[in-house]
User: What shape does this take?
Amino acid sequence: MEENKDKSVDLEDEKNDKSEEHTENAEKQDKPEEPKLNLVEAIKEIFTGEKPGIAIWLLKQDHRKVEELFKDFESSRTTNQKYQLIQQIIKELDVHTRVEEKLLYPILAKEDKEKNGEANEEHHVVKLVLEELAQANGSEPNLKSKVKVLSEIVKHHVKEEENGIFQIIERSGADMDELGQKIAKEKTRLMNEDSNSKAKKPLPKSAKKAKVVAKKAPAKKAAAKKASAKKAPAKKAPAKKAPSKKAVQAKKPQAKKASASKTSKRAKSGSRLKKAS
Assistant: This one.
């Protein structure tokens, strides 16, 4: 009996441990990952006592991810790889710019209107290039140049944010922890919204053409060969035209002349016979 009680107690303890682990894991998933300090930020914390907030860390993580995507595109070789990377770049930059414009730039506008205007204009230029890239299928001859230009614009914008704008936001007095939570939630919402819209929408026509272009070319050649092999139908001989009235009338006098000459010859031969008798 005592052994059974001990076993039941052990089972209950295991269940409690598992439930506690489950709740801890759930809490970890709900909370965004804590920022990891790099060397510069660690030195800054030691001398100034300032610790980077989760808001700025999340935005910097977006910057690093986009930089990696641009590097991957430069080394990509196939059309499909380029197309997939373009879609990822568009998604990341679209979500990032929308998050900043909704949550970060209103704070910046209160602190520095000029910086806010420049940042919004740079976002506008990025969006224009993204609209063009959204029509790409990965096989365009100028695609690499277009992505290179976009990467340079983004690189300049990132430098402006990380070396100036983020510091203005940190000094603004805004609650950086609360801002970080808002940024994390908004980014998750937009990512889910984007994935749901893509699931409903079919692939763009340009992407479909890129996938079937290799299949269509041989089919066209085969069709051309078949068409050339077929002989053209023989032309029908033109029907004989009925003689016109003028031609008939022109023939009639000739017939009369011929009959008159015959009668004159007969008359002459008759007169000769009479003389001879």
About this structure: Residues 52-212 form one domain. Residues 26-37, 210-217 have pLDDT under 50 and may be disordered.
